[in-house]
TrEMBL record:
Signal peptide coordinates: none
Stored Gene3D superfamilies: 1.10.1660.10
Record Pfam families: MerR
Organism of this sequence: Streptosporangium carneum
UniProt-recorded name of the protein: HTH merR-type domain-containing protein
A Gene Ontology molecular function term of the record: DNA binding
InterPro entries: DNA-bd_dom_put_sf, MerR-type_HTH_dom
Length: 111
């Protein structure tokens, strides 16, 4: 189906559907160079994205960035570094640190 019919079925404007496509929130076009045709798979993907946006109270742009973080290691690392710096993400504990803490607890228990 064409974009106008797909948008009507999804309860949004064709412009909003094009915006979601520009953000990368739709499956890739099967035939490169061809006009996008919407089938059940594309409609289900858009509906799932809209449901996530509502459930987590986020915008399509925020969902698009979350997908980028999951799919691009350099972006994931940059976001992780920021999270560590501002205290929203904890640094992974190294095995040596765990063993050191365990030994200190055992020594404190003896005194």
């Amino acid at each position: 189906m064409r974009i106008t019919e797909a948008a009507r079925r999804l309860g949004m404007s064709p412009r909003m559907l094009r915006y979601r496509e520009a953000l990368g929130l739709l499956p890739p076009v099967r035939n490169q160079g061809a006009h996008r045709r919407f089938g059940d798979e594309e409609l289900a993907a858009v509906a799932q994205g809209v449901e996530l946006e509502k459930r987590f109270d986020i915008s399509p742009a925020e969902l698009s960035f979350a997908l980028r973080v999951l799919s691009e290691p350099a972006v994931a690392q940059a976001v992780r570094d920021l999270g560590l710096r501002i205290g929203r993400v904890q640094a992974p504990r190294r095995a040596l640190d765990f063993e050191k803490e365990k030994a200190l607890r055992l020594l404190q228990g003896r005194s």
